[in-house]
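G.,

No rush on this.
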Amino acid sequence: MTVERFAAGAIGQPGDREFRLEAVVDGAATAYLIEKIQVAALAKEAQAQLRESGNLGVGLGLDPGGVDADMDVAFRVGGLHLAFDDTTGIVLVVIHSTDDSDPPVKVELTQAQLDAFARDALIVVAGGRPACPRCGLAMDPDGHNCPRSNGDLRGHRP
């Protein structure tokens, strides 16, 4: 199924955000709960594949849009697969649930849609708490106990 819109977004405040994927097909939107690291991994792999095919940047004129915080979530994402069809230029994204009883969802994107998604998704991921320049862990507004400074990480939120 070809999607009209495919976007990633975060709901909530940095340090307490919920990440979602949202796909709109034939006017019907579906949301999926996803981990921040999964959003980043999908976006980075998409950009790597687009770069390899010479199509990185083809979606600069597209806006993938955001996600709707009030939308019900279909399922939590357990895994993702990304496949490029060089003959048609279509990209297949398969979204797997953490629950084996949920069938995988397959969406077809143009390379321009995937490029726009990846660019925007990396901005969403980067919009969280800043990383500590010494250890790379996320810092709360009041700082954190850096392990490189012999800090105690028992209360650290990833």
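When you get to it, here's the other one too:
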Amino acid sequence: MTEEKDIILNDRVATDLETKDFYYELPEQLIAQSPSEERDGCRLMVLEKESGSVEHKIFRDIIDYLNPEDMLVVNSSKVIPARLLGVSCKTGAPMELLLLRMLDSGEWETLVRPGKRAKIGAEFDFSGVLRATVTDIVDGGNRTVRFDYDTEKYKSIYEVLDAVGNMPLPPYITKKLENKSDYQTVYAKEEGSAAAPTAGLHFTDALLEKIKEKGVGYGEVTLHVGLGTFRPVKVEKLEEHLMHAEHFYITEEVASEINSRRMAGGRIIAVGTTACRVLESASSDDGTVHAIRGETGIFIYPGYKFKATDALITNFHLPESTLIMLVSALAGKENVMKAYEIAVSERYRFFSFGDAMLIV
């Protein structure tokens, strides 16, 4: 039975590291504006976390680094077209909403621009199909909104979003997305994310099938990606940064297989930082993973002791982000910063549509 949990936070560890220690120079032309022509045809850097050595491969070569006793853990959350462009019902002025998460009440926590037009009671229209009413202003200036639409024509809010919403691409991607599926993993199932768990974008159905045929385990967990994963770190000292909580769950079946494979000597390989955060939020100090449903605000940075994650598949992340800090916690800051230096010199592609890294 899945256990219900409140917000899970890791014990903050003391560190002399500061946010600026995770800065690196990145030429703008290395920021990928579109995905690879073949999902599994992007480049793959393999980083050995003990020695810091790197190898240069193609992503589909990843199967050669997986053993039959290992297990891949992926985040199967589905990105929703969470960016809404509309107008104020009162003035006709343009408005933009970014949906962050659905609340238990059925209302949504959103990011609204410009915020000065989003007072409580303000109404916005989106293509004559969807209407939003601001019901509250919450911590950080986010707005809670209630949506109204034709329930006879649309079975759910997600059908409406498919009709009028846009994929919420990060601001560093300026090229128009031609196909919504390009920003969706092949195993995406449950709607709820405001951004893609991008490490999984490199997998194809065929590659996953080959991996399973090799005997490697496969398990799906869910973490609905909100702003917490990507929010800039604005404090100097890492332990002062507060993560935005995100909803996650892991089932009894998946938790049981993880524990069995680990006891048999296999490695648990998280596909993406979000899957890694689920594993670490759902595990006890001895590394046992539990079936849990809850909210996690876990912030992983160097000094953190991993409990359930042995290896990680990830992309190349923004300077000074919580993501590069998590990767540095697993592989060592010096190893990671050196690997990033190599990636820049070898002209790897960076960020959401960029190339991949395997940390073993």
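The chain has two domains: 3-79+179-359, 83-164. The mean pLDDT is 94.

Enjoy the weekend,
O.
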